[in-house]
C-alpha cells in the first residue's frame, strides 16, 4: 500500500499548469514495441532498449554531457544487441524503428482526459525528453496538438528530466511557481523528479509501468488519464 | 569500430592507482542471476532488475536523494514485478536474493590479473556503489581481499558513480590526481563516468556487457582482467 497519509494536495485554485509527459503517457508505443521485439527476435527487447535509453540519458546528465534523445535511442539499440548477445541491427533497420517514434497513436483515453482538463480551466503543456522537432510531429500525428497551449522539450535546456532544475526552468518559462504546476506521467522516475522539484504529480499506471517505491506517493493516481482527470477536477 | 585514434594513454610511470568496480567486473553474478530468473520465471528478469537498479540510483543522484544500494536493489525487485506484470516477490524471497550479493565467486581470471597488476607496482583499490559493509563481505567471500590496499564505497559520499565528483573524491582520498588513476569496470556507464572525470579506463567486456557508444573509447579493452592487465603492463 502507498502511504496515503503523506499525499500533498493543492488548495482550490492553486494548480494552474499541467505538464504532460508524452511517450507512453499520452502515446501508445505498441507499434514501436512490436518492431523492436521483431528486429531482435526477443520479447524482452523493447523493455531492454527503452530501459537503456533512460539509463544513458541519466548517465549523460550526471557526467555533464548532452546528446539528443534520438541519438541516445540509436546508441541504446546497439547496447541492446550487446546485452542480448546478438548482432547489432543494420543502420537502415535502426532508422526504420526510430522513425516509428513519430507515428504513434494516442492512448484511447487521452483525448477525453485532455478535454476534461482543458474545460476545467487548466493550462495544458506537453513536456518531453524528445526534441521539439520530434514532439511536434508526435502531437500532430496523434491528433492531440490542439489541446496544448504549447509543447516544450528539454533540448533548449540540454538537461533531461528528472533533473530537478529542468522542472523548475519550465515552470518559470510558463510564469508559475513549481507548486502551481503538476506533472502527469506514466514513469516512476518522472514522478520522482517532479516531486523532488516541488510540483504536484499524477501517475497514469499504464501496463508495465511502476512508481519508484522510495519516492513519495503521487498526488493523483489512476489507470487512465480520464481517471486522473476526474480526481483533479474533484 | 571504436575510434582508436582518440584513445589517450598514460605516460610511463604516470598511472599510480587502479580503481576496480566490483559487481560483474570482479565477481561472477551467475548465482544471483539464476535466483532472480527463477523467482520471476522470466529469463529477462535479471537484466530487467539490474537495469532498474542502475537506473534508479541515477534517478536518486539527479533528484539529489540518496538511498543505500541494497535499499534500491530491494525496491527494484518490486519495480521488476510491475514491469513484467507479475506479482511482487514476498519479503523473504527478496531477502534471500539480496543475501546472494555477498556470496559471489570471483571470475576465474581475476586473481591472476590482480596479482600481475600488484607485482607491476600499481596500488589496487576496490571502489563500489555497494555499501562498505557489503563490499568487505564480498571481497572476503571471493577470497580477493588481500590484493587491495583498501576497499572504498560511495556510501560515505552519499553520491553514486558515475557522477564525476564521486571519482574526483576517491582520487583525492588516495592522494592522486584523476590523471594518475584508472578505473577498471565491466560497465559502459562506469567507464563513461570515469572518462568524464579525467581518469584512464579499462573495460572488461564480460558477456552481455557493453560500452556507451557516445562516450570515447576506453584506454584498455579486453575480455578478461588478465587481457587488460597485459595491456597495462605492456
Structure described in brief:
The structure is a homodimer of 234-residue chains. Chain A has 234 residues and is an alpha/beta fold. Chain A has two domains: 14-28 and 104-233, Rossmann fold (3-Layer(aba) Sandwich), CATH 3.40.50.1000; 30-102, Putative phosphatase, domain 2 (DNA polymerase, domain 1), CATH 1.10.150.240.
What does this entry look like structurally?
- The structure is a homodimer of 234-residue chains.
- Chain A is an alpha/beta fold and 234 residues long.
- The first copy, chain A, has two domains: 14-28 and 104-233, HAD superfamily/HAD-like (Rossmann fold, 3-Layer(aba) Sandwich); 30-102, Orthogonal Bundle (DNA polymerase, domain 1).
- In chain A, 44% of the residues lie in helices and 12% in strands.
- Chain A contains nine helices and six strands; from the N terminus they run E-H-H-H-H-H-E-H-E-H-E-H-E-E-H.
- Chain A has helices spanning 30-40, 45-62, 69-83, 91-99, 110-119, 132-142, 164-173, 188-196, 225-233, and strands at residues 17-20, 123-128, 150-153, 181-185, 200-204, 220-222.
- The first copy, chain A, has a six-stranded parallel β-sheet with strand order 3-2-1-4-5-6, with helices on both faces.
- In chain A, strand 4 (181-185), helix 8 (188-196) and strand 5 form a beta-alpha-beta unit.
- The first copy, chain A, is globular, with a radius of gyration of 17 Å.
- The mean pLDDT of chain A is 96.
- At the A-B interface, helix 2, helix 3 and helix 8 of A face helix 2, helix 3 and helix 8 of B.
